[in-house]
Amino acid sequence: MKKSLKMAAIILLAGSLSAPAAFAQNGNVKESLVALGDSIPFGYNLGQNNRNPAKTAYPYLIGEEDDLRVRNLGIPGWQTDQLLAALQSDQKYRQAIIHADYVAVTIGNNYLLQILLETGAKSGGNQDLFNLLLQQKLASSDVFANLLSILTQTRALTDAPIVLYNVYNPFQLNDPLHYAADPILPLINGQFAQLASLFSGVSLADANAAFGNDQAIYVILRDIHPTAAGQQVLSDIGIDALGLD
């Protein structure tokens, strides 16, 4: 009986000595960043192929800079309705957000690019008609309502800091669409800023201001996606917005 009690005491003592080591190990687990959105966080056209996210995409650059585990859930071609549906019903997305320490959201670019191109074609170079058609398109769009729901869903799943990226001008300076987009981007991005302001812990990353008129450096030629340098800029403003510095 005494031997049994002695053995039990040894086991308990061993357990109490090993517990701090276990807690220390758990304490060293890296924090995580989950990136949601379209081809921009995916890093489209930067890797050897577009089957997997490029390691030079901004979520990974943030992860390298701040020692974070990164889960990149960006999907090329996705629009706001697809991301919203995933957050509402796809357990992969929901569980990723639940366990995230930081969240980055970049979505809406594909739709806004599409309406710019369609409106430019229909207006035939008439700026007044372009502005009118564009305002009609934006007024009838559900993109901002979807963005509101995306942020609502994300905030319901986590209290982690969230960074929302706005829309940069993807057109080179020698493209007439660059100058068509410039006047309306403040209107569009004003909506992004307003949406971010509605939520606690949601910050705006101003990609439009960061890229400015340096598309030759930050946007792939004959493309609309960020170069490696552009992705680095997106990483820098994301780090600032999340307060990781």
From TrEMBL:
Keywords: Signal. The lineage of its organism: Bacteria, Bacillati, Bacillota, Bacilli, Bacillales. Residues 1-24 form the signal peptide. Residues 35-233 form the SGNH hydrolase-type esterase domain. The keyword Signal applies. This is GDSL-type esterase/lipase family protein. InterPro entries: SGNH_hydro, SGNH_hydro_sf. Transmembrane segments: none annotated. Pfam families: Lipase_GDSL_2.
